[in-house]
Amino acid sequence: MLDRIGHEYGWAKEWSDAQSEWWHIKYRAGVWSGSDPGPSGSGLTEEDVLGVASAVSSSGALHVFAEDKDGAIYYCWQRAGETAWSGGQPGRQVASLSRFAPAP
Fold first, then answer.
1. pLDDT value at position 35?
2. pTM score > 0.70 for this model?
3. Can you give the residue range of the structural domain that contains 80?
4. Most-buried pick from 8, 18, 62, 92 (CB within 10 A)?
5. C-alpha 33: how far from its chain's center?
6. From CA 36, how far away is CA 99, in angstroms rounded?
7. What pLDDT band is residue 85 in, cutting at 50, 70 and 90?
8. What contacts 18, CB < 8 A, 6 or more positions away?
9. Would you give the DSSP letter of residue 97?
10. How far is Cα 29 from Cα 11, in angstroms, rounded to an integer?
11. Total tally of structural domains belonging to the chain
């Protein structure tokens, strides 16, 4: 999934220090200039998800991406040291995935 669309959103293996290892990716700030996908939630179930990828940015934020069986990408994030997801209130919003990119 990151190989397919990551570059457009600032995530790529080629910017990492170990490009030959699939799990090494790096975030480059300023690449993505679109709006924040927001915490609207996706309604995805476990049966819908084909794969999940996660990464920690240089700020320490955790980013989680999931691909559904139709090829669409969903996303959520959590700042370092916080317990809320996607900018929500701690204890009020569980990790929910928002639609990030449509199926190709």
1. 57
2. no
3. 2-32+41-101
4. 62
5. 15
6. 11
7. confident
8. 24
9. P
10. 9
11. 1
Lowest mean pLDDT among 18-22, 42-46, 66-70: 42-46
- DSSP readout, 7-71? HHHTEESTTSS-TTSTT--EE-TTS--S----S------GGGEEEEEEEE-TTS-EEEEEEETTS
Integer angstrom CA distances of residue 99 from 16, 28, 51, 76, 82:
26, 21, 15, 9, 22
Q: Which two tokens stand for residue 103?
A: 């199926």
Report which of 104, 38, 102, 50 is spatially closest to residue 76, judged by C-alpha positions: 38
Q: Which three-class secondary structure state does DSSP give residue 74?
A: strand
Name the band, by pLDDT with cuts 50, 70 and 90, for residue 25.
Answer: confident
